[in-house]
Every structure is written in structure tokens, then in C-alpha cells.
Amino acid sequence: MQNMLPQTRDLVLIGGGHTHAIVLRKWGMNPLPGVRLTLISPGPTAAYSGMLPGFVAGHYTRDELDIDLVKLARFAGARLIDGAVTGIDLANWEIEVPGRPPVAYDVVSVDVGITSDMPTLPGFADHGIPAKPLAPFASRWDAFRLQASDPHIVVLGGGVAGAELSMAMAHALRSRNLQPTVHLIDRSAAMTGLNDTARVKLRAALDSNGIQVMENTTVSAIEPGAVVLDNGQRIRSDFTTGAAGAKPHDWVSGIAVDLHDGYIAVGPTLQSSDPAIFAVGDCAHLTHDPRPKAGVYAVREAPILFDNLCAVLSGDKLRHYTPQGDYLKLISLGGKSALAERFGTAFAGGPLWRWKDHIDRKFMRRFSDLPQMTLPNLPKRHALGLPDALGDKPMCGGCGAKVGRAALQAALSDLPAPQRDDVVRLAGDDAGLLTMGQVRQVVSTDHLRAFWDDPVLMTRIALTHALGDIWAMGAAPQAATVNLILPRLSADLQSRTVREIVTTARHILSDAGAEVIGGHTSLGAELTIGFTVTGLCDAAPITLGGAQVGDALILTKPIGSGTIMAAEMAGKGRGADVAAALAAMCQGQAQASTILRDAHAMTDVTGFGLAGHLRGICDASGVGANIVLADVPLLNSALALAAAGTRSSLFTDNETGAGAYEAAPGPRRDLMFDPQTAGGLLAAVSPGQVDAIVQALRAAGYADAARIGTITAGDRLRLR
Hints:
Layout: E1 9-14, H1 18-29, E2 35-41, E3 45-47, H2 52-57, H3 62-65, E4 66-68, H4 69-76, E5 79-82, E6 87-89, E7 94-96, E8 103-104, E9 107-110, E10 115-116, H5 124-127, E11 129-130, H6 134-147, E12 152-156, H7 160-174, E13 181-185, H8 196-208, E14 211-214, E15 219-223, E16 226-229, E17 234-236, E18 239-242, E19 246-247, H9 250-253, E20 259-260, E21 263-266, E22 277-279, E23 284-286, H10 295-314, E24 329-333, E25 335-342, E26 345-349, H11 350-368, H12 386-390, H13 405-412, E27 423-424, E28 432-436, E29 439-449, H14 455-472, E30 476-486, H15 491-511, E31 515-523, E32 528-537, E33 552-555, H16 561-569, H17 575-586, H18 590-595, E34 601-604, H19 609-621, E35 624-627, H20 638-643, H21 651-657, E36 661-663, H22 667-671, E37 681-685, H23 690-699, E38 706-712, E39 717-719
Parallel strand pairs: 1-2, 1-9, 2-5, 9-22, 11-18, 12-13, 12-18, 13-14, 21-23, 30-31, 35-39, 36-39
Antiparallel strand pairs: 3-4, 6-7, 7-8, 10-19, 15-16, 16-17, 20-21, 24-25, 25-26, 27-28, 28-29, 29-32, 30-32, 33-37, 33-38, 34-37, 35-38
Helix pairs in contact: 1-4, 1-10, 14-15, 16-17, 19-21
């Protein structure tokens, strides 16, 4: 019933902080009908600060540290925009994200945490790494930890965060049988903010970890391999980090609302001076009851924020947030030991670490143990054949939602020969060829059922997919019309969505030297984006029918997108792998088409899978092919998912459509029938040119371009 109701309001969450993560989970359990929810975050994951010291120490993996925002957004029914916000235009109710049209909102909540002002220290921006934001720090530390041989480390900032990091780093390196030298430097007294008992215990833990604490010491500059003090002393440092000097993000300080030292000032309802702008976590300042920056307050704000977002969007009464007076501080001590401090007391030991570990893992399970997408329940009485037609999994989007090659070929096989002299029938090609005097124009149309809720990203993918037929024929894009099916939306949301799509399409086509010349819209059950595209050929178009025995087969992009997106729909795909697959789908093929201009035959690899599209070349050319499966480039995680049995809903049709083939069973074979969305170009080229072409493709940005096989005599596909 929820999907049948029109959406009338845009709620945008900026940032994947702890509060927003909980709100997304709660929204997935109980969404507010009529609201289109959007999450904007720079990356597919958000690191959980409570487990960062444990990750640095080696107790947790990176996957255990990160909240997977892709899975969480899918569960919440939210569109996820991968981008870094640079501003909010209150006058126009728009959020600025570089590289895309502004994102409109009716209500917005900000939960982006804080950043570090360490880069203002001379040399730090070039030779140091701040502890916040957490994600880039975690990646840099992971690389250093594995490569270090004689490590010297300096941590700037002698508060609790700096103490935790320094002990965690020392423990991790000692676990590799290294003898690290770690300095913890603070320009004033270290470990303030703790009671006397806790401070003594923390100091003892630092000593036992071999941390050299330097208090009342000022750093003047960071140099390559060294930290320079104001007295001229140089301290060797192979990894310099800063856990001090927290400050709000610059763009947050630029929002035209009331601020407190650059932080968004909010009242008890968590609203700013603009009632449409909420803020939570470390980026907010509680004017009615100021509190230190601590994750415990962000977690406790989540239920209030969820209720108040629903209230302001539905016209209900808002609740007040009252922060607790004190909270339990659990401080990691490097190894599997922790310090607990509250109400003037402090205890330390292994049991406290196990308690902290239990709390942290329980918190993270809230975002990993999510209900999976299920098929609708069939009525007790239903038509014969309905279970078979429904299948055993939800229907995939993108090219996974298309009809199989066999069904399409059967329908097209009986078409009569063209009666017009200016229409040229090309055997098996998706695009048609029109000739007008000396002008050769190719025309094609394609559309995608949205598998991602961001209209801008889907536009990029759908247009790249549609232009694939033009590029595969060696043509240059000329013009396009936009064909849209929109889900039920209010007039305002319709206007916002169409504007985003058309603006994005215009920019992409303009970069390709083409124009948007019109469009059509209608309403339906879900978003579908399509384009009718034309292109011009300077020479005879490259078709499916020119492959020659002995030609080398080149593929410009890795495969596996259908499997990865099927896993994502089922809640099994890793967010980082999904993001990489989406980025691959957005990569255009204009440069590849130019580099492959001398190909004997070429096609784009899309819904029929690599084997199906290769079959198209073989049938049109009267040849066969040998594919070396180990040479076929794959998207990250595609092989593991295929080995675990993950398949697109179009897999069986694609295997049938590929015709007769020889192959040993296995996941690499299965991926040959995986439907691709906006996939790469598959070209048959002279064997003497293959090395130069592959090198040119990689230099042009097609990093995974590879020779994958050879054209052979006969009509068999051999996948080995």
C-alpha cells in the first residue's frame, strides 16, 4: 500500500552519522507515507567512532568498523546520493552537491560530525593525517600498519581520543613483532576531562604501552618524516596524526542559521533557527542544555529526531530532547583492556573491554541484521503458472529486468526487409542505420527500470547505456529525446525529479557533443528512464557481422554488475562494491569507441550478458569463439557472490539465449550469462593490433580493458 501512495514531501538527511543511521533503521521499520527520503553521504560507508581504537589496534576489521549505508538506505527505502555537501540555500530550499543539480528539500537534518583544524598547522595538510573524518584516517592507518618496519609515530592531542589512538597504534605494531616509538604531544596538560582516579589509571596504561607523553609542548611544523617543536627539536615521525583541534565543517558554518562557535545552534526539538533545518550529533550545539561532543548523546537523540521529523512533515506536535547528566566513559587501552569512568570512580581491566566490545557489537548489529527483501505472498487461489512466472526472487532492475535474448530474437526474426531505400537492416544490431545522401545516421532507443533511487545517478547510467549502441557502431552521439515513467508524486516532486533528470542528461550529452531535443513523460508504478538516441558515422558503421577467424576479442569494462545489484537488492552486497559497480556503469565509452575504430565487429555488453552478446557477433559473422574465463575482468566481489549462488533474475533466459556452448560449471562460467547495465564494448580486432589497443584503452581510463579470447571457425562458443 505504501508504494501506491503518492510522495509529496522531500526529507533529506545530510551525513551518515550515528543519529542518522538509527533514524534510517527506524524509518525502514515504520516509514511516514508520502515522504521521499534521501541520504547524502560522501561514500558508501560511515565509520563507527566507538570501534575506531579497536580497529586501529587490530581487534576489528574494516568491515566491522563501518556502517554500510547502501544496505541501510535500501532497507529504509531511501535514495542514497554519494557526494559531499558544500552548502544549503535556505532561500531556494536546495542543497548544493558538486557534480550534480541541487537537491531540493522540504525538511533537512544535518549529522556530519566534526573535522579537524590540524591542517592549519604548517605542513600538516601535506605530511599528516587528522583522526577525523574517520574513514580516510582508517584507510591511511591500515596501509601504514601493514607496511611499517621501524615505525615512529606522533599523535598530537593528549585528550582521551589521543591516548586511545596512541595505545592502539603501539599495540597493533607490537602484534607484528615491531618495536614502535610513539610520542603523544599536547600543548597543555594531558588527559583533562577525567577524574583523578581515571587519570592515574590512564597514565599507567600509557606507560605500560611505552607511550612517551610530552605535555605543555608546542608543535611549530610538520615536515616529511619529522615533527618540529617550537624549541627547534625534531622528533622523527613516519605517521603523524592529530586528535585535537576539532571544529565544524566550513560549509556548516556557512549555513544562514544561528550558530555557536560555528556549530548549528539547536533547541530542545533539535531544530535550528530555521524550523526546516534540524541538526544532531557533534555538528550541533544544544542551546538549552550544552553538552560535550560525545557519541552517547548522538545515539540518544535518534528517537527524538525520528519522531520530530515525522511530526514536522505531518503537522503533529514535536517532542523535546533532554540529555542525560553524565554518561559512562569506556576507554580502550590498546590491548583487550578498557578503562571505565563515571560518577568520580574508575576501573580498568579485561572484563571492561569485553563489556565495551559487547556494547559496540550490539550497536553495529542493528545495521547489519536487517530484514531481507521477500517475494509477495500469493493468494490461496491463483491462476495456473503464476508461481513459475513470479520466480524465486524479486525481479532485478536495470538490464536484469529485460526480456531474454531468445524471446526478442524470435519476435524480430519475422520482420520483413525494409521497403525504404534510406533504411538499412543490419544483422542483429540494436541500432538501426539511416542513409540520407552522404549522411549515415544510426538510431536506437533503450530504457531502464530504476534499480537505484537517485534519479541523477540513474540518468547517468541510463544515458550511458543507451549511447552504448551508438558507440558500438563507431558513431558520434548527435541528439536524444528523454522518455520518462515517473512514480506517483506531487506536482512539486514531479517538477524536481524531471528537472534533475533533464539537467543531468543535458550535461552528459553536451560533453559528448550532442543535444537534448525533447522528451515525453507518463506516470506508472516506478521510475523508468529511457532515451532515444541518434549518432553520425564518418565511415561505414561497425556492425556485428565483420568478425574474422583469428581476431582477438577485447572487452573494455569488467562484468558482474547484474550479480552485484541482485545481491544489493537482497541485502547481501557490500556497499563499497555496489558503489564501485555503479561507478563502472557511469563510465562512458566515447574514447573506447574511438580507440576501437578499426574493429572488425563490435557490440556493447548489456542485458544479454557477455556470452549472449558474443553469440550475436558469432551468428552475424558466421564464426565461433574461444573465451579464456580467467582473462575476463570482473567487478570486485562478483566472483564470490556468483560462487555463493547469487544470480540475476535474467540469468536463465540469458543462458538459453547464448545457444550452444562448451564450459565447465563454476562461478566464472555463470558470470558469462550475467546481465550487464551500461557495460563495456566487446570488439573483434586484428591480432596484430591487440596489444597496442589494450594499452591505449588502459591509458584512456579503462583500467580493466583486456583481451579475453579469440574468434574461431565453426559456430561453437567455448568458455574455458
